Amino acid sequence: MAEAANPVPAPVRLCASDELAEKGLAFVFDVLQWREPARAFVLRFDGRLVAYLNRCVHVPSEMDWQPGEFLDSRQEFILCATHGAAYEPLTGRCVAGPCGRGKLTTLRVEERDGDVYWYPSRDTRPVFDDE
Questions:
Q1: Does residue 4 lie within any of the structural domains?
Q2: How many CB atoms are closer than 10 A to CB 91?
Q3: What is the CATH number of the domain that holds 60?
Q4: What is the per-residue pLDDT across 84-114, written as a single tens digit (0 to 9) for each?
């Protein structure tokens, strides 16, 4: 017997586009991943928005040095403050450290009409979702 369809929620407005400066502070937000609370972030890198779960591949702990600070001192890589794992910002792929060949969990975001939106998925949903 097939399970009942569980529609994906509508896009969620996160912030105004101008709140995300190039290689600046990320916007951090709460999500539910498989019904468990998690943090996520979106930042602007090389003119593009990228968004990931705030979980290091090595050990699932939050990575920011200070709230919203994810990039290394040269602003080249997303760096885990706890383990030193380095990730390529545009792909989320591990490039150095204890994360092996892992990859950060990507979240879909879009910029339109001066705002940044996150598109929930079947696995990652808004905290306020009433499943």
A1: no
A2: 12
A3: 2.102.10.10
A4: 899 999 999 999 988 888 999 999 999 999 9
